[in-house]
Amino acid sequence: MFFDDWSGIGRVLIATLVAYMALIFLLQLSGKRTLAKMTAFDFVVTIAVGSVLANIALSKSTPFMEGITALMVLIGAQYFISSMCVKSKKIEYLVKPKPTLLLYQGQFLQEAMRRERVTEADVLLALRQWGHSSVKDVEAVILEADGSFNTVVSETIPESESALRNVHNYRPEDHEVISQY
């Protein structure tokens, strides 16, 4: 059916605009973390919020305030879990994946690359994007928790200052790469 009546169009227009404004308000309250680069946890929340917003806008059977309540619960849960991750390393470990070392001291870590489904071409692309022409020029390439290759470490630094300390496959005590998690 193409068109029922103008009241349906008006309801969709008003419900969508009000729900959109409520969503923006809730996202402002929840902070920048809600909109940061997405991990799997963030992706699930984003999809759920989109689904609820669409339901508020288009479903006549969903009361408006119930939809807004659902948005508040989802964003509140995301805020709460993110806050708990800051307070507890155990919760952070359960919710957020750790970055993975893919190349270390000029050597591709094939097992880690296979586990993360990353090819040598992907790592070489990251090196080129960071302005490196050789794998020997870098200390490490890391696949970040959000799936990006935003980290190429150019030089060795003392282990106490190492940005690699929370990366899978890296042991700062002896600067060796281990092959298992």
TrEMBL record:
<keyword id="KW-0812">Transmembrane</keyword>
<dbReference type="GO" id="GO:0005886">
    <property type="term" value="C:plasma membrane"/>
</dbReference>
<keyword id="KW-1003">Cell membrane</keyword>
<keyword id="KW-1133">Transmembrane helix</keyword>
<keyword id="KW-0472">Membrane</keyword>
<dbReference type="InterPro" id="IPR023090">
    <property type="entry name" value="UPF0702_alpha/beta_dom_sf"/>
</dbReference>
<dbReference type="Pfam" id="PF04239">
    <property type="entry name" value="DUF421"/>
</dbReference>
<comment type="similarity">
    <text>Belongs to the UPF0702 family.</text>
</comment>
<feature type="transmembrane region" description="Helical">
    <location>
        <begin position="64"/>
        <end position="81"/>
    </location>
</feature>
<protein>
    <recommendedName>
        <fullName>DUF421 domain-containing protein</fullName>
    </recommendedName>
</protein>
<feature type="transmembrane region" description="Helical">
    <location>
        <begin position="6"/>
        <end position="27"/>
    </location>
</feature>
<feature type="domain" description="YetF C-terminal">
    <location>
        <begin position="87"/>
        <end position="156"/>
    </location>
</feature>
<feature type="domain" description="YetF-like N-terminal transmembrane">
    <location>
        <begin position="16"/>
        <end position="81"/>
    </location>
</feature>
<dbReference type="InterPro" id="IPR007353">
    <property type="entry name" value="DUF421"/>
</dbReference>
<dbReference type="InterPro" id="IPR048454">
    <property type="entry name" value="YetF_N"/>
</dbReference>
<dbReference type="Pfam" id="PF20730">
    <property type="entry name" value="YetF_N"/>
</dbReference>
<feature type="transmembrane region" description="Helical">
    <location>
        <begin position="39"/>
        <end position="58"/>
    </location>
</feature>
